[in-house]
């Protein structure tokens, strides 16, 4: 009798052979262990799950399933996934020497008996070379987490010619090319995955407290929303007042800045530096032109960013479903690769998680401390708009090295507009805060989590800023550390 793969039998039409009427569509088997089936599940034409025992099934064909005359199927109140314990098809297979030919991808049936397994060793290899077959006689132990084969086990390999493999490769490439126009859909998916990745520890904590994956994912998202809402509630009164004052004072600030800039040649002459008015005016004209172009580019980018607002709104919804199915998604990703490579993926994934989480928690904490210290220092100094400057300092601290410089410029300019001594005092305050953050706070909080020399971080910032702008600079340091982990693991495999 012909051997069949269990998954290829699913969704076949189920007929009552006596009446010729369709009973429904097959949805899977009920297993009695690792060697036989006890029955099958199907969904009737009214959408109800039904189960029928194996002795009432007459034929499991290639294109249809026939029930015996008078067969009666029980109506289930829950899906087969909750009604039965199927032999796990993704269990890794090992020999006594600890070598693995792959993992069980499907169950082979001869009538209702399980006679063997289909063996997968990663998607690409499966497509190009085909899946192997392992028969029951070669299996020594079928455990819940591992299948051990006998020393004399034989894997039956499909024989594909070079032409057949080439056709399969071209077919796979053609499918990828057909999917290429859908690449724009990847943006909300990647954003959702990023949110889910960051919230997974929170969802996992709720699951350990007894919550199911769905409620745990929802609670994790609500926790993030609650923190963001609290931050907005706390900052809005201060920022609204100061932003309103700042917007109202912008014309006067720009006028004072213009007068200050025009006095640069005069101030330079007091220190023995000669700058002609013509050359200085030429510098100002070029700077003004470059600034106008930069503002125009920023406005264009802002307009384009509004077009992606839907992606940001979709990302929390997608993150919920990703968190809910996180373990299953992780299994799907691992099953794309060979068993021998899965250990590397798990190891590298753990290293990356440690780096990313340490970076996020450490940077958020140090940025909060920098913002608070900046607010206190500038408030004591008597500068205006201390709340806005403190927020800029905190955000700038998220970018290593360069962020502190960029966020210090507005503080110094505001000091110059009020009094030169305030500008000098503001420089001293900013330098002291940055020294405290760089020499004490960051090493204590982040420790050696990134394990990158300063030169590597600077190069990463320059490259990321060149190709991905300010957003790239935010992620440059952790991405450089992630690349380092991956490269080290690859080199460990190659040499």
- The 3D shape can be described as elongated
Order of helices and strands: EHEEEEEEEHEEEHEEEHHHHHHHHHHHH
**Low-pLDDT segments, ≥5 res:** none
Structural class, judged by helices and strands?
alpha+beta
Report the sheet-strand fraction. 5-15%
In the residues, how many domains can be counted? 4
**What is the count of DSSP helices, taking H or I runs of 4+ residues?**
15
Provide the gyration radius in Å: 32 Å
How confident overall, as mean pLDDT?
Answer: 77
Query: Roughly how many Å apart are the termini?
Result: 49 Å
Most strands sheet: 7 strands, mixed
Percentage of residues in helical conformation: 55-70%
| Secondary structure tally: strands | 14
Please characterize this protein's 3D structure:
The structure is a single chain. By secondary structure, the protein is α+β, with helices and mostly antiparallel strands. The chain folds into 4 domains: 4-83, PRC-barrel domain (SH3 type barrels, Roll); 92-159, SH3 type barrels (Roll); 185-325, no CATH class; 337-495. The chain is 62% helix and 14% strand. The protein has 15 helices and 14 strands. Strands 1, 9, 10, 11, 12, 13 and 14 form a 7-stranded mixed β-sheet that branches. The longest helix has 50 residues, at 213-262. It is elongated.
